[in-house]
TrEMBL record:
Annotated signal sequence range: 1-19
UniProtKB keywords: Signal
Record-given protein name: Carbohydrate sulfotransferase 1
Positions of the Sulfotransferase domain: 97-406
PANTHER family per record: CARBOHYDRATE SULFOTRANSFERASE, LD35051P-RELATED
Gene expressing this chain: LOC106153297
Annotated InterPro entries: Gal/GlcNAc/GalNAc_ST, P-loop_NTPase, Sulfotransferase_dom
Originating species: Lingula anatina
Lineage of source species: Eukaryota, Metazoa, Spiralia, Lophotrochozoa, Brachiopoda
Name of one Pfam family that matches: Sulfotransfer_1
Region (Disordered): 417-437
Swiss-Prot/TrEMBL GO biological process terms: N-acetylglucosamine metabolic process; sulfur compound metabolic process
Coiled coil, from the record: none
Length: 437
């Protein structure tokens, strides 16, 4: 009996020791786990805001080897579970320096955008509002808290909604930006990753390519948030018009507008070449509807708005003719950077020389969004040699005011100049032949 009691006591003692051992082991493992988690967070949050997003790749890799995923941890911070100053720094000026490249389809904006995309110190987004048209047709938008909303639910007209999205992009407040904008066309994300449109967002691009749904893409938003916190931002916009920009200029005192224009005859001819005009439009009214839309509905109101904005916000609007940049790339690129108060980086200057002189190898001429050209000046004025006279006359009839305001030649003057050039060349050729005889 005594042995039985002794055995029971021994068993109970062993059980207590075993349980205590398990509890101690659990505490030790929990402490190790928490230390690693905090270390993983520090990998991302203590990177200076000037660090290039490409420099974050070793950080993400190190965090992965420790058994964590950077994007999953930081997602909770975006949704409000943490107020760490690295993400929610109320002392940081959210407005920063930014430039909006406001332009039209087929106006040379891809080339101008690359002046910032190639800059390692800039956060650049290629047509971020493009996806809103697609998303609005689906009638729903996804946000970082996984909520589903529609444009109509905001009570704002579509243009005002897009303007608000651009404001939130400028301030890097991605909780108010649809994920459809930040990670468009899931799961391929073609519009975001094609043609190296975001070369300094490779880590973010790799992240969104891992997932198949917009909801999953939310995990990657902290990476693009980190890149956006850089001191300078540039956005190429083709959906908003100059008439939509006053609220942005009022709210952000350090935002500037680069209003990029191109001869409407060149743009319209390019749109037809690359089949960017809807077939139903061509069937309805041939090219006339597109000509009227470009000049009467867009460019004339924009030029009026530009003049008004220049008087209200002096020094913050720059009008750039694509042809001027194509004819003198370095000189006008320097003017652009001078306008935004910065110096053009050496790598951007080298890229521009190679691109506009046709030194970059590869067949990119067939792509409507490509930037490399055999000779940028020849490309910019090629339309003069290929446009049908009837189309040139028609565009002039609807776009005469735009052509005159922007300092372009009328089609009649171009024809006269070309005719005189041909006569001069013919005369020179005849003299050479006569001397040879």
């Amino acid at each position: 009996m005594a042995l039985m009691k002794l055995w029971v006591c021994f068993t109970a003692f062993c059980s207590v020791v075993f349980c205590a051992s398990l509890l101690w082991t659990y505490k030790i493992q929990s402490r190790v786990f928490e230390n690693k988690r905090q270390q993983q967070i520090r990998y991302v949050e203590y990177i200076p805001s000037t660090t290039s997003i490409t420099e974050m790749e070793p950080v993400a890799n190190q965090a992965s080897t420790d058994g964590f995923t950077v994007t999953r941890t930081l997602t909770s911070k975006i949704s409000g579970e943490s107020t760490n100053s690295a993400i929610h720094n109320t002392d940081m000026d959210p407005r920063g320096d930014a430039v909006l490249i406001v332009t039209y389809v087929r106006s040379g904006s891809s080339l101008v955008g690359e002046l910032f995309n190639q800059n390692p110190d800039a956060f650049y987004m290629f047509e971020p509002t493009h996806e809103l048209d697609r998303a609005s047709m689906k009638r729903h938008l996804t946000y970082t808290d996984n909520s589903q909303r529609t444009m109509e639910s905001t009570g704002l007209p579509k243009k005002e909604f897009m303007t608000d999205v651009v404001k939130n992009l400028i301030s890097c407040d991605f909780t108010k930006v649809p994920v459809n904008v930040l990670a468009p066309e899931s799961p391929s994300h073609w519009f975001f990753i094609a043609l190296g449109r975001h070369i300094h967002l490779r880590t973010y691009a790799s992240c969104i390519l891992k997932y198949n749904t917009t909801a999953e893409d939310i995990q990657c938003i902290p990476l693009i948030k980190r890149a956006c916190d850089k001191s300078f931002k540039a956005f190429k916009i083709v959906v908003l018009r100059m008439t939509d920009l006053e609220p942005i200029l009022r709210q952000f005192e350090r935002v500037k507008i680069l209003y990029l224009v191109r001869d409407p005859r060149a743009s319209i001819l390019s749109m037809r070449k690359y089949k960017l005009i809807r077939p139903v439009t061509l069937q309805k009214c041939n090219m006339t509807c597109e000509i009227v839309k470009r000049c009467k509905e867009h460019m004339i109101p924009d030029l009026v708005a530009r003049d008004r904005l220049q008087s209200r916000f002096p020094g913050r609007i720059m009008t750039l003719r694509y042809e001027d940049l194509a004819d003198n790339p370095i000189a006008y690129a320097d003017k652009i950077y001078e306008f935004i108060g910065r110096e053009m980086p050496a790598n951007v200057r080298e890229w521009l020389v190679n691109t506009t002189s046709g030194k970059i190898e590869g067949d990119v001429m067939s792509d409507p969004y490509g930037t490399s050209r055999v000779n940028s000046s020849q490309t910019a004025h090629q339309w003069e040699r290929t446009i049908q006279p009837s189309l040139g006359v028609e565009v002039d009839s609807y776009c005469g005011e735009v052509i005159q305001k922007l300092g372009y030649e009328s089609f009649a003057n171009i024809q006269s100049r070309k005719s005189q050039e041909r006569l001069r060349k013919d005369g020179q050729s005849n003299r050479v032949q006569s001397n040879a005889k």
